[in-house]
Structures are given as C-alpha cells and as structure tokens.
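Let us work through a complete example step by step.
Step 1: write down the sequence.
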Amino acid sequence: MTPRHRRPLARRKLLVALGGAVVAAPVAAAIAPHALAGVGSDEPAPRAAGALALTIVNGTGSFGNADVHVYIVGNVDGRQVRVTPEGTVAPVALSDNGADGYTDYAIGLAGSGGTKLTLPHLSGRIYVSLGEKLKFKVVVDGAGNAALQYPAGWVESDPNHGVLHDCAEFTYNSAGMFCNTTMVDMFSVPLAIRLTGAGDQTTGTVRPGGRAAVFEAVRKVEEFAPLVVEDTRVIAPGHGLDAGLFPTDYLAPYIDEVWSTYTAGDLRITTDAGTFSGRVRGDRLTFDGPAQVSFAKPSTRDVLFCDGNLAAPNDGTTGPVAAVLGAGFNRSALVSSADQPTTDPATFYGTALTNHYAKAVHAATEDGRAYGFAFDDVADFASYVQDTAPTGFRLTLGAL
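Step 2: predict the structure and record it as tokens.
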C-alpha cells in the first residue's frame, strides 16, 4: 500500500474541505487525513455499501450514558450538514439556532451498553461531550450560505472552552471509510476507533493511565506547562503559541541547527516522485531531483502547524517534501539522519527542543500512533485507519 504521506492529500490540506465551516480559531473544521485515500492507490478498490453501522461505547467510567452527548456534523457536496439520531442527513439552517443562539444537535446514548446508530456518506467529525452539551451555532458565511461554528476548545473565549469534549474525524463515501482520532488541536477525551470490513483494525486506544500521563508529561516541560487547562484538556502548542501561551521562538535553535547542518551536507528526502537531495543555498533549503523545490527557513509556528514556509501544495513534488520536512522538524529527527523520512520511533523526540506534546500523546497510545501534528501520518505514525469495504465503525470513549 502506498505510504500515506505520499498520497495526494494529507490532513492539513483538507482542513477547509468541509466547505465553509466556521470556527473561532485559525483553522477550519477538519476531516479525515486521507479523505480521498482510495484515489491514488495503485489497486482498484471495491465500493462501500450505503449506511454504515456506527456504535458509540462509553468507557469513561466516570460519566453515565445520560451524560454523554454525540454530534455528527460535516459536509456533503459542499453543504454543511448534521446527522440526525435516525441516521439521515439534514442541512444546517439558521432556524436551528434556539432562543439561546445555539443549536441542539445532540444525539443521546442508549440507557446502557453500546449505542447503535447509522452513518450516511459524508465527511466530518463525531464530537462527544461529557456532562454539558456543546454549543454549535449556525451563521452565514461569506458566500451567504448557512455554515456551522465548530467548538474551538483551545480558544479561551469560545463558549465550549469549559466543556469536556473531543472528536474523531472521518470521510465515508463510495470508496470506503477513512478515519482517525485527532490530537492535532488538543487532547481531552481518550477516543479509540475499531473499523471492520475487509479487515479488523483498531487505533487510538489510550493505555490505562495514559490520559493522566499526557497531562503530567506536558506539565513537566516549562514551556509546555501553560498548555494544560486544569483537568479538561491539553492544547496543541501551535494553538498555544497563537494564544500567547507558548514561546514564538521555542524551536529556533533546532531550526538553526538544521540549516547549519545542511549548509555543509545534503539532506535526502524520498517520495513517490523519487529522491530529492537538498542543501542550504543562500537562505533557502533547495532540493534537486525529480524537480527543484525550495524552502525558506521556517518559524516555530510554521513547524508546529506544518504551514507557512512549510506549506505543502497538492502538486506531487513540493507537497510531499514539505510533509516529510514538517514531520522531521516536529520529531526532531532531521539532524540525526540525513535520509528522510526516518521510520524508527526510537529516534523521534530525542532532543530537548522537540514537540513534547506530540511525544506525550504518542507515548500514551497502545499502538504508538497518534495525530499530534498535521503530518504525523508521515511513515504511518498517525492514529488513522481505512477500509474500502467497511461493515462497522465503533468509537469508544476511554477512561478519564
């Protein structure tokens, strides 16, 4: 199977694919990292059936089923939609806002055991909130269409900041099911996916005590400690930077070291297009090979968001190289190896200046996979699974 970071689309490139989703934050609501993963595969994929059996399991141990609220929201053909408890798709509308100004799209759980739902074709998110309901609001976007404001728990002024919640991302269409548990924005509620069909796959499961371990590990690093919001969530450092909670120049010494290292030697990055060989020329890291691609020195923010000077266009050349660079910076793996991407997790996060948030969430999962930053799928380290003939999708809320 084609390595995921070499496929045409990666998670960050699909951040706006919900078509007009609005949030109180710099990024729009996201969908699964490889929404078109079947496109770009070398093998023809069987077509998925219609509605998919969805099971929600409450394993929190501290919240009863009556206190768990589920929301399925997303996009169908460019329209903002929600899924009803009956499994039908309903476009969002301004009239959905109640007297308090917010919608109530919550789907309640069964009185006990797993809750059986059906999932129609769409791209979107499954949100869960514990104790309180989430405040979604329908607004009018710049094109005059109804659009949904999504929760932005990392923003202190967001109405959902005090609500314990999290989400999983997916795209389900005729090509199959493509889904992940995401920590790209924050980590709050442990979520695990089991996807059955042509195979039987599980990912995202947080080991016993793993949630507390993430909070503790992040608190131990001085620069990262402000990212911990009581016992509610840990904010990803990029969002922390934007909120003034994280140093804007935190990674600057490591970025400088990379630039210095590859002023004197070559950095080799292999993608589906071939091997690119790069060296710093002037102030840019310039690669030759199948095509010439070049990058200005990134900032800490560029690294954390895999954007800016590390932006990855969907062009088959610059984009894949940028993805590998972004992963190498976040994993602090670029100086230790001139051949990228590296695939041994024992070599990741080994320097003092590294993405300690991503390190912590990876350490907390049973399979070592997590979506700690946008291109964590490089070399298949993201909590992502796909199936071209899915029969069941189970989302389990883990222990708090």
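Step 3: interpret the result. The radius of gyration is 21 Å.
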